[in-house]
Here is the input.
Amino acid sequence: MQGEPLWEKRLETAVREAEAAQKPILLSFIDPRCPVCRQMEVDTFADERTVDFLRNNFITVQWTITGEAGLPAEFIVSGTPSFIVIDSSKEAYCCARGYLSPEDFISFLILAIAKMHFALGNINSASIILERVIADCPEGVSIPEAIYYRGLCKYMHTKSVDAMKEAYSLLLSRFPASRWTQRASAYKTL
Here is the structure.
């Protein structure tokens, strides 16, 4: 809802809301001394598209941390800003750390939703969502990982290693230095 706070203050409340709404939870960890955190507040979390996407698709929780104070024991955070997408059982599906522009942040969130579907065995849904993030955010920081997972989805549908070879070829041509290209490189010789 417009005007309501974007960030829930308590994880327990967010878990109940997420379960009732069947939405994932975005955990955000910030430090008020962190210049990158402050920049994301100005750029990303002030962006109307980002706020609308979060409100429509996630339950959000933010912790302000100074050192280890206030950090929930279930989650390990090695820097700020950090973001973890979990479900209502606190299973983590996707993480990011550092500055993300509004476009990159939305592509990260869409990828997180796709990875949740993938992990839960909803391969068709994951594939559709991955196609969306690749088409909508072609230069986003999450695109190499999305291409890799789309290749896995195609492989799971067809049982043909050609799907992963295709993913590797695309990754090599567009993102040669990506760790996702490296992960897919095993398929080049099969």
About this structure: The beta strands are 25-30, 59-64, 82-86, 92-97. The mean pLDDT is 91.
